Amino acid sequence: MTNTIRIGLIGSGYMGKAHTIACKSVRTIFRTELTPVCECLCTSSEEGAARCAQELGWNRSTGDWRTLVNDPLVDAIIIATPPHTHREMVLAALALGKPVFCEKPLGMSAAESLSLAEAAEAAGVVNMVGFNYIRTPASQLARQIINGGEIGEIIHVQAEHVEDYLHDPRAPASWRTRAATATRAGALADVGSHLINAVLRLAGPIDRLVADMNVVHAQRTGPTGNEAVENDDQGNLLVRFASGALGALTFSRVAAGRKMGYAYRITGTKGAIAFDQENQNELWLYDAGRPAQRQGFQRLLLGPAHPDYLAFSQGPGHGTGYNDQIVIEARDFLQAIASGQNTWPTFRDGHEVDKVVETALRSVEQGGWVQVG
To answer: Which domain holds residue 77?
Structure first.
C-alpha cells in the first residue's frame, strides 16, 4: 500500500482511545495524502497491551515502550501517557528521526519542555503537542474574527477551564494528584494548560501575571491508605498581555456541575466574542457598531462555511464533537509529516504554555506579580 504511515501509540486510556478513533477515520474525513495504519500499541503490560490492541483494532502490541519506539515497522509515534514519562519517550523517538506527537503538558517543567523543543529542532523532526480544544471550528472562527479586526483591538479576556472530575472527596488519589507523576501544577497543568494555550493563540503572549491557587481536598485514598494531594485543585490568574490587554483566567478540577467548562469572552474596542465548549457548535459575536436598538450578541451556529466543519457534515447545525477535535489534530500531524514542515502547535508552543504555568507557580510562592519567563 502506497502513502501509508505506520503509527505507534503509547497509552490506551482516555486519550489513547481518542487517538485510535482519529487514526482510523482521518483519511476518510480529510482525504489526507498519508493513510495512517494502527501498527503497534503499547501499555504498561504485555497482557494489557494485547487486550487493548484487540479491542481497539491495532495490528500488534507490546508492554515496553522502547520496543515500540525502536520497531522498524513503526514510522511515527503518538505519546498519550502521564507527563513524567514524556521526556525519555520523546528523546528516543527524536533520536531515530521519527515524527512525534505528545500530549500536554509537554514537560514536567518549563526547562524540560524547552530541552525537548530544542532537541526536536536540532533533529529536524516533525513534532506536535496536543491541544485539541482550540481546534474546534468555533475557536478557529474566533481567531479569524480577531485577526480580521472585526472586534477591534483586544482590551480584555475572561476565560475559564473548569471541570468537576475531582469534586468528590471520595475520588481516589491518582497520578494527577502526585507531583512526581503529574507536575507541581495540578488543575493548572491539567485543564489550565488548555486555557493558557487558548488565550495565547487568540490574544497573544502574556507579559506578566499574579496567581492564587489552593488544594480543596488535602487527602485522598491511595493504594496504601490516605495520601496528601500534592498539587492544586483550583486557582485564578490575573494577567497582562504584551499588547496591554488585561485578563482573568480561572481553572478547576473541583467545579461542581461543570463537565467541560472551557469558555472565554474576549472584548475588543469594536465588539466581543463569547464561546462555551459545552455548546461547542456556536460562537457569539457582539458588534458594537450596530445602532443601539439592534445591539446584542448574535448567535453564530456552526456550519459548512466555517473552518474544518464541512469535512464532518454538510448540514448546518448538525455539529461536531469531542473526537472530531482529535481528528483535526491527526490531519494536521499527517500534513506536517507529508510536507516535512511543522504546524502549530509545536513543542516550542508547548514550552510557551509550560512557561506560563511555571510563572504562575512562582507567583504563588512569591506572593505577587511575576514577569513571564
So the answer is: 4-133
